[in-house]
Amino acid sequence: MKFETFTAGHWLTRYQYKSFEPVPVNHEWIWEDPAINSLLEQATRALGELNAFSLIVPDIDLFIEMHVVKEAQTSSKIEGTQTGIDEALMPEEQIRPEKRDDWREVRNYIDAVNQAVVELKTLPLSNRLLRQTHATLMSGVRGEHKQPGEFRVSQNWIGGSSLMDATFIPPHPEGVPDLMSDLEKFWHNEEIVVPHLIRAAISHYQFETIHPFLDGNGRIGRLLIPLYFLSHGLLAKPSLYLSDFFERNRASYYDALMRVRVSNDLIHWVRFFLNGVAQTASKGRDTFQQILALRTEAEHRILQLGKRTPNARQALNVLYRKPMVMATDLERELGLSHPTVNALLRDFIRLGLLKEVTGAARNRLYVFETYLKLFLM
What predicted TM-score, i.e. pTM, was given to this entire model? Predict the structure, then answer.
């Protein structure tokens, strides 16, 4: 299939509405547009540079956890969830009651990402994996009654209050199983020569167009991208997420997807996607460089603590995973006594590594502010 002559699908009249029925994607793809070749080269290079950090940075998993938190918060924000990255790191009892539903959705996303990454070690990227991930995402939150972990058997829509005024109506549920089966085959088809970044771009578009679940499609569709990269060895660690790029360019993101459906303009979408990969990977590389510099500086500061340095080093490793902590978190993680942890916290505040943010006498929260800010840029 040639990008320039691609026809995305057709509108099929149903009772009082028309659904969009996309064409299958599991086949060869070619293009003439030179901009795609240039963007493909840039994105591949940037992704490779990011992946290099995953291979050379000591204890990389300490820092990956914050990438996951950032992704969960940002991807949920696109769907209207109002939880800041600082709140996502707080325990539930520290969250105001009216914001706890949003908080739980973000925490579910974190669990879903972590679970999916672990499952990829024994399961291939598959519809089964996506359904399992969706079940975790929807567990105990607002979408828990919308067939968690199952493809839909009723019609859904995007935008508007009903099918009558919807912005877009995905395919009829009867076609969802075949379309998702075709998409799964596309991920693993070794008989066609299509670069993985192009497959990932087409896969995200196709998933969002099929909209196979009643709820949570945006978040699962965005998570599909790093899972695809991990599955095919483009990334050694889950260090790249496009939700931040999509959120900062939200109108352009939705427009690019709709242009394919309405105008068959797949070229515009692929360009947008590859540009997002290149920008996000470069930003991720820069963040890792800043993390390494900060880690060196923090290590230098705690050397002043003499015999307490080993405990301080362990505490820092906790903070790289969770830069907002209570004293009880460090007691549990490090197996240290309450007085010892309080002494460490005082040392960290004196050294400028931690800041107490509640002003309370009890249940105080401490933030590793300089580190957290790297994920807010």
Answer: 0.94
